[in-house]
Amino acid sequence: MPPAQHQTQLMSQLTTQPKTQLIALDWGTSSLRAYRLGAHGETLELRALPCGVMQLPATDGDDKTGFENAFEQACGDWLRTAPDTPVIAAGMVGSRQGWQEVPYLEVPIAVDHIGAGLSTLRSRDGQLIHIVPGLIQNSMLPNVMRGEETQVIGVLNTLGAVSGAPGQDVLVGLPGTHSKWVQIHRSKTQNQVAHFDTFMTGEVYAALCGHTILGRGMQAAGNESDTGAAQRAFERGALVAQTAAGQAGVLSTIFSTRTLGLTGVLDGAGQSEYLSGLLIGHEIAALQTMLRDQGRQAAQVMLVGEASLCERYAQVLRTYGFGKIEVVAQATQRGLWQLALMAGLLKHT
Amino acid sequence: MPPAQHQTQLMSQLTTQPKTQLIALDWGTSSLRAYRLGAHGETLELRALPCGVMQLPATDGDDKTGFENAFEQACGDWLRTAPDTPVIAAGMVGSRQGWQEVPYLEVPIAVDHIGAGLSTLRSRDGQLIHIVPGLIQNSMLPNVMRGEETQVIGVLNTLGAVSGAPGQDVLVGLPGTHSKWVQIHRSKTQNQVAHFDTFMTGEVYAALCGHTILGRGMQAAGNESDTGAAQRAFERGALVAQTAAGQAGVLSTIFSTRTLGLTGVLDGAGQSEYLSGLLIGHEIAALQTMLRDQGRQAAQVMLVGEASLCERYAQVLRTYGFGKIEVVAQATQRGLWQLALMAGLLKHT
Q1: pLDDT for B17-56, tens place per residue?
Q2: More exposed terminus of chain B, fewer Cβ within 10 Å: N or C?
Q3: Residue B297: pLDDT band with limits 50, 70, 90
């Protein structure tokens, strides 16, 4: 495109599009989501690219070229249209396999300190990119997150001012491939990430279905359209962890997926639902035991993630007696916006 | 081979080989082992074929032809040499996917009743084959075994006469792809299979290493020849289940395999050993909890299986305070021999 024509198009875009205030990137292992955010943090435009940190298109030589190319694809035109827009990115982009490694910040940590701890890198075009650090919990079994800290901040933003509910702890649940459960202590002066746990439930479920004998029974023809039976199988699985037999733990109870198939209790689709409920049930039961042992009780559970998965978790949480459960949408873009505010990247809100 | 020559060879075999008393087949999912047993149950000859129930060579039409062909390969010549020899088979050969389905017998059951409950089928050559039934434990989480009941009987045989230790319970452990733990109640009159549990530890370990992010870290170069470091990593993993953090359960603790890699505590080989110890530790800890809840204490633990795996389990059992631990060899052929005796298949012993 000749420069004159390009200029014309830019002018036309500027007159028809609301002003871009922030470009926010959610750059994970398998995908890259780019948000163009407006004056109040509202999403003006969203792009989803299959350019996760572990799935970048192959490039010759410099291993950073893949990141540069993906960045250009994601928001190059947005930046040419609005060159002074700040850019913030969260997720695996800041890992050892990412564009630039950003050291973890240590838990417990006040949420405000995360916003004050962004790192920066410059793209080949000179664009400054602010990268959100992940969190680490150093203990006998260390724990890490990258990206979820941003969603947690987005969730907390929906709760309003800190002074609104001092002393009430909040449990933020992020179900997915690796579920995270984040305990937030709320005081009059700050929100603190106090503790978090990881459960590999989603990835274990996929590995068991795809690569063990449990998946073989699931291939048997079942009445797939019978959602009532599927729901009952899920509930049956979810209850296992709270029974005496559930004390045997996941390595043992999962085998019942197969034996309930062998004995004709569950069809193929039922076995799949049962295993899903069984694993989530073990996760929630363990979470409950740990909270009890720590003398903590979450006044409120906030869930973030894919809607149908959040509904599964909400159901099991209710089964295990958790009270107030809320599903929060748009946590990532809210969190990136809040972090940009904390870091002073936004001139006005 | 012309008949005359065949006859000559048979004669020569008869004069040089000890008399075959029993042909015993251990016919599992992935392999078939055929034992030619002598006058006192000693192994005269052993053949291992890759002809498990799920790995039979493809055949046209009749789905039983694969079993017939494998049977011929395994012991056709033995039977032509000694045509009146009884044949007994245990394992998945009696499952729904096997040569002929043999219904499970229900636990609790006296060991002698298993030997009285063999089924029979006839091969296309008219050979009678006695098939050992598997065991089922009907409960909310049903449990099944096929083949392990035979190994348990072999183990009990090494304990000598029932009257030797009445009232002392024995715990038989069969570590492997699916570990089984079998509680035997010993009274003056009988050995009873009272209860058993299954742990999918071996298969879960393989699925986690091969098909989750945990395997990725294991590929990192480590000092593979440092057996001391490997042993320490295994022990570190084995201890996890008995700590406060271990209360989070397997779905959560396995993630530490990755984080101990990320934080530089474990190299690639160390992560693999750590995960092995961690899973076995969770298995033994759960077993201990269940025995305690049932008010039982095993006077003796007998292990059957691959030698190095039994050594891993013995080590973790000691860590968790189990006392007398013994590894038993040749349990399968001993068990098949005992079952043939119980069933009256052997004219004299």
Answers
A1: 679 999 999 999 999 999 999 999 999 999 999 999 988 8
A2: N
A3: confident
DSSP per-residue codes, A142-195? -EEESSHHHHHHHHHHHT--GGGSTT--EEEEE-SSSEEEEEEEE-SS-EEEEE
Picking from A30, A179, A200 by the largest number of B CB atoms within 10 A of its own CB, the best residue to mutate is A200
pTM of the model: 0.91
Distance CA B91, CA A322 (A): 45
- Contact (CB<8Å) B249/A286: yes
Q: What type of residue is B3? A: P
Which residue in the set B199, B251, B287 is minimally distant from A201, CB to CB? B251
Q: pLDDT per residue over B200-214, tens digit each? A: 999 999 999 999 999
The answer as to whether B175 is a domain residue is no
- From chain B, the residues in CB contact with A199 under 8 A are 248, 251-252, 255
Across A247-268, average pLDDT = 96
- Residue A315 located in a structural domain: yes
CATH number of the domain where residue B34 is located:
3.30.420.300
User: Contact at 8 Å (CB) between B271 and B260?
Assistant: yes
Nearest CA in chain B to A256: B141
Residues B90 and B152 in one domain: yes
> Within this chain, do residues B130 and B245 fall inside the same structural domain, yes or no?
no
User: Which residue of B lies nearest to A292 if distances are taken between CA atoms?
Assistant: B247
Contact between residue B37 and residue B21 where contact means Cβ atoms under 8 Å apart: yes
Which chain B residues are Cβ-neighbours of A136 within 8 angstroms?
A: 263
Tell me the average pLDDT across B306-332.
95
Residues of chain B with pLDDT > 70: what percent?
90
For residue A140, which residues of chain B lie inside 8 Å, CB to CB?
A: 240, 243, 245
- At residue B49, φ and ψ (nearest 5 deg) are -120, 145
